[in-house]
Design brief:
Elements (H helix, E strand, L loop, with lengths): L2 H21 L3 E9 L2 E9 L2 E10 L13 H17 L6 E9 L2 E5 L4
Parallel strand pairs: 3-4
Antiparallel strand pairs: 1-2, 2-3, 4-5
Length: 114
């Protein structure tokens, strides 16, 4: 798979994740927020709560699946990026970190994942 194909698959997975989460009542704030030290795939709100979401996609579970693809380093970078985002935007509210794992056609949403 070329890097362009990989990006397209990743974008499609994020689009699926966003549609799924909006169906669950979450509201999109921003997507693909990037800092030199980390990236946030989706930032959403549910009432007054801010939700930072990592989206992981795998075509199948053959090599461990999407859930196993989240490393401690990735979690640390997501935490740092979310803290930075909240400081920059002067947000003083509850937040949580969710994981949306997509393995082929299977979607698994884990709230308070980290």
């Amino acid at each position: 798979m070329t890097s362009a194909e990989h990006l397209t698959k990743g974008q499609q997975a994020e689009d699926r994740a966003l549609a799924y989460l909006e169906q669950q009542g979450l509201k999109l704030v921003e997507r693909n927020v990037r800092y030199p030290f980390g990236e946030i795939d989706l930032i959403m709100r549910q009432g007054h709560k801010w939700i930072f979401i990592e989206v992981k996609y795998r075509q199948s579970k053959q090599f461990g699946g999407a859930l196993q693809a989240v490393s401690r380093g990735k979690i640390a970078r997501l935490n740092r990026a979310a803290s930075h985002y909240m400081q920059l935007n002067q947000i003083d509210a509850q937040c949580r970190f969710d994981l949306l794992a997509i393995d082929g056609d299977d979607i698994q949403w884990i709230t308070n994942a980290f």
